[in-house]
Design brief:
alpha/beta; 6-stranded mixed β-sheet; 23 helices; about 55% helix; elongated
């Protein structure tokens, strides 16, 4: 049994024993920890993993709590129907807010969450039906198969069953095809879109899911305390939840429990200790929290969970590939000689700078076409136009006859276009295998719910098997489990190539793939590209190593200042005076 499973078994054993060993006070504290962990888990997924900072999760807790409170007190409804009511209402409000919120970036996103968090808080305090600031009482206890859950110890069972289920579902989610896509959102959204991931939709899904976890916490809170007041859902509480996520480890599932435990227990202990120390009452614990955050962020900026994980790290086989699985279905290849890529007068301007000016050329199936030119010639901009990272300002770009100059990257990826980037674009904290598996995203279909319930294991094995095959193919079989950021630049470029191959492309765009490679590695790469051509994969190649290019490509297109200045066979290009003057004359 590995260290992670041992830690989980110990934790579950503690949860089972706690209500029999702890006093009523500490059982109540454990209930508060479980309720807070549910909300914090949503923040881990939303903020720590997906990169969407929210100060407003307490609003969704309040919506879930007040929905069931009103339903069960004013309408004498069942608490279980109150749960459905609360979650549906929470989902609808989160969907409406999320459609606006997740489109924001930078400081606008957290400011927006603060704004609607404040608005919802004042809404709770001003609606007569919610009891205004006097609160809403008389909320009934939950009954389950005749068992009335009306004490702290009985509520403990329900709260921690829900919390454990949510933690395991989140862990399953992140260890899946959908989870890899979520983990790419924070820093690599452009790359994710280039491999068919709908980042806007995925952000909205995570936003709503985090809200539902908060709404579930609110439902449990309402029927545990059986009284609600707006003060429990103000903005300060939202900041506390964010503190819990940061302290535990903002990108760590189990960090939600650690953060909720540390802050909940510390808050209670400091409330007792600090007034005695200062000989007067006051909210001194807030000051201490602020002071404690400074050394924490300095010494453990990723939170406490990674620290504990390092202490329990075990030695493992880092070269063993994933288990064998059935091969994924392959994409139908275009006929030999078919017009695969055609540009007619393509243009792209950045203000007064014309990066691409009236560029036209055609590429056929089964061809390796080199795109060369001096730095700043517009080659990478052209790659971004073809792959949908940038929209063209004029002209036409067709892939297999379909116009793509205004098509989003994720739709172009579905046409069989895959790429690497001029500047390495990997998720550094993910392993080589996981990074490559992102490339196969469109070759799977199971979504977030299936991942949480562990119903996509067969598809996941097939995706990882395909990723492993491509890792082996580029010569990195000894690095399956290594974090991609730990590899040298040349090997990171090979990871990018493997990721592109995992997409099963018909058109492969390689942006300086040989940069950082040694001579033997370049020769192996050239041999791989020739094999890909035989398999029906066409390659558009940008490269500055002329020896590498001239011995590999079928034809060359030369760019300078955004324009095509020459096109033809390598030997003709080498003798072209305009090319020699613009580019090759500067190469020794």
């Amino acid at each position: 049994m590995n260290a992670g499973r041992v830690a989980l078994a110990v934790f579950v054993a503690f949860l089972v024993a706690a209500p029999f060993l702890l006093s009523e006070f500490y059982v109540t504290l454990m209930n508060y920890i479980g309720l807070a962990a549910l909300v914090t888990l949503g923040l881990v997924l939303l903020t720590g993993v997906a990169g969407l900072m929210s100060f407003g999760q307490q609003a969704f807790v309040g919506i879930g709590a007040y929905a069931t409170g009103v339903f069960t007190t004013l309408y004498a409804g069942s608490p279980w129907l109150g749960l459905v009511t609360g979650l549906v209402l929470t989902a609808l409000i989160a969907l409406a807010l999320g459609l606006v919120t997740v489109r924001l970036s930078g400081h606008y996103l957290p400011i927006c969450t603060i704004a609607w968090g404040i608005a919802v808080y004042f809404l709770f305090g001003n609606l007569e039906v919610l009891g205004r600031y006097n609160g809403l009482g008389g909320i009934p206890a939950i009954t389950l198969f005749g068992w009335k859950i009306d004490s702290g110890r009985e509520s403990y069972v329900l709260i921690w069953l829900a919390t454990l289920a949510a933690l395991l579902a989140a862990r399953n989610l992140l260890d899946s095809r959908a989870g890899r896509a979520v983990r790419a959102l924070r820093f690599r959204a452009t790359m994710a879109e280039s491999f068919g991931i709908d980042t806007a939709q995925l952000k909205l899904v995570i936003f709503v899911y985090a809200a539902l976890l908060a709404g579930l916490s609110g439902w449990l809170y309402a029927h545990f305390l059986r009284f609600l007041s707006p003060g429990a859902f103000n903005v300060n509480i939202g900041i506390e939840y964010l503190f819990m996520a940061v302290v535990g480890g903002a990108s760590q599932v189990w960090g939600a429990v650690i953060g909720a435990s540390v802050l909940t227990l510390l808050k209670e202990w400091l409330k007792d200790i600090l007034p005695k120390f200062f000989e007067q009452s006051g909210n001194y614990e807030v000051i201490v929290f602020g002071l404690l955050m400074l050394p924490l962020l300095h010494r453990a900026r990723d939170g406490l969970m990674p620290v504990f994980a390092r202490l329990g790290r075990r030695t493992r086989d880092r070269t063993a590939p994933p288990q064998a699985a059935a091969a994924l279905a392959r994409r139908a290849r275009p006929a030999a000689g078919e017009a695969l890529l055609r540009l007619e007068g393509a243009c792209k301007n950045f203000g007064g700078l014309a990066a691409v000016r009236g560029l036209s050329f055609e590429m056929k199936t089964g061809e390796i076409l080199g795109l060369i030119g001096p730095n700043g010639a517009g080659k990478s901009t052209l790659f971004n136009l073809v792959t949908g990272v940038l929209a063209a300002d004029g002209g036409e770009i067709r892939v297999r006859g379909a116009r793509v100059e205004s098509m989003p990257a994720r739709r172009i990826a579905r046409l069989g276009v895959a790429r690497t980037f001029q500047h390495v674009n990997l998720v550094g904290s993910m392993s080589v295998l996981e990074n490559v598996a992102i490339g196969a995203h469109l070759r799977g279909a199971r979504g977030t719910v299936a991942a949480m319930l562990r119903l996509e294991r067969d598809e996941e094995r097939r995706l990882l098997h395909e990723a492993a095959r491509q890792v082996e193919r580029v010569g990195l079989g000894a690095h399956f489990a290594d974090a991609s950021a730990s590899l040298p630049l040349g090997q990171q470029r090979l990871v990018e190539i493997a990721r592109a191959l995992a997409a099963d492309p018909v058109l492969l765009l390689l942006d300086e793939p040989a940069a950082g490679l040694r001579y033997q590695e370049k020769q192996a790469l050239a041999e791989l590209l020739r094999k890909l051509r035989v398999e029906g994969i066409s390659i558009l190649l940008v490269e500055h190593d002329m020896d590498f290019v001239m011995g590999l490509v079928d034809r060359l297109v030369v760019m300078d200042f955004g324009e095509k200045i020459a096109e033809g066979l390598p030997r003709d290009i080498q003798a072209n005076p305009a090319v020699v003057e613009a580019y090759l004359g500067g190469i020794e």
